[in-house]
Amino acid sequence: MTKLSPGRAILVGAGPGDPDLLTVRAVRALAAADVVVHDGLVDPRVLALAPPAAARISVAKSRARHTLPQEAINALIVGHVRLGETVVRLKGGDPFIFGRGGEEVEALRDAGLPVEIIPGVSAALGCAAEAQLPLTHRDHSSVVSFVAGVCQGLAEQNWIGLAGPGRTLVVYMGVASATMIAEKLMGDGLSPETPVAVLERGTLPGSRALRTLLADLGSMVAREGVQSPAILVIGEVVRLAEAEDKLPLLAVQAMERYGA
Q: What is the pLDDT of residues 16-37, one digit of tens each?
């Protein structure tokens, strides 16, 4: 049957990975989809919630390779909606936290097409919850900042004040730049002894929560072979997490020797 134009677009947050963390509203949207345009990190079990006849189109991105540039993704969504289809744009985490959801909404609005947003559990919230790591705590942190660890001019980005006493810094997409991030923060005055957690594959099989100190962050990522997806959490709240301590024994002994 020929569909009436226009259709609609629904930007859906798929959460950090575990399908059980989808909202009820997200599941309903998937069940109504004619087309699912999805990120590469979306779990196959989430994609399976769409009707068998629904088209599934991957627009996977990685640090070194994009299947489609963002402008082409925008055009893809707009094109299918104009055909009268219900398009679910399925994004890892939440569409509006480092998900480029704002750009896609702008494109749909500019085209005069209806769009709906269904929020998702962000990677920071889902991964921290799994590691029992409170991003805020009355005794340790009343401020949380989210930053992207991959961007042009990372070394020149002004992060002063985003991390330190009473604050928690969460870095998305920071694994490949972990050494630079640590050096930048220490250069901006953050103590090398600030605790850091690396939450790898949060909520997915094989997830790990690793803990060290800021001065050891880049070395630990290399030693442990940490791979994306992973987030970095920096601040005193990290001491409360259920995490594996990975600071080298020699460093621990040196700190104890010098009273650090």
A: 999 999 999 999 999 999 999 9
